[in-house]
Amino acid sequence: MTTPSQQIEHIVLQADYDTVLASLPPTGTDGQQVASSPVMTREYRLNTSDTINAGKWIMWSVSPKPIVFTWQNGAWQPPATLVVRRS
Fold first, then answer.
1. How deeply is 26 buried, as exposed, middle or buried, from its count of CB atoms within 10 A (0-12, 13-18, 19+)?
2. CA separation (Å) from 32 to 4, 36, 46, 72?
């Protein structure tokens, strides 16, 4: 995934997220980052233009992308812009 931005969200399915999470190393060191294998991701961007669609989320892309997890507080933490969809 690209650098985290508050104007971009990445949505993955729960099954894909569970698979990626299970493939991560069991432990890490504080601040350590690990990129997962690519998983199908839907990227949405917030429209910041000065039009009638300003403030609406727009689907930008659908493609396999790695998820970068960070080891913090004894667990792998996903990026703040990741949304996991149940179905």
1. exposed
2. 16, 13, 29, 8
What does the pLDDT read at residue 6? 65
65-78 pLDDT tens trace: 999 999 999 999 99
CA distances to 5, 26, 29, 52, 78 from 81, in Å:
7, 23, 22, 25, 8
Question: Which run of H or E residues covers position 2?
Answer: none
How far is Cα 10 from Cα 40, in angstroms, rounded to an integer?
Answer: 10
Alpha-carbon distance 45 to 7, whole Å? Answer: 6
List, for residues 12-21, the tens digit of each pLDDT value.
999 999 999 9
Residue 73 CA, distance from chain mean position: 19
Output the pTM of the full model: 0.81
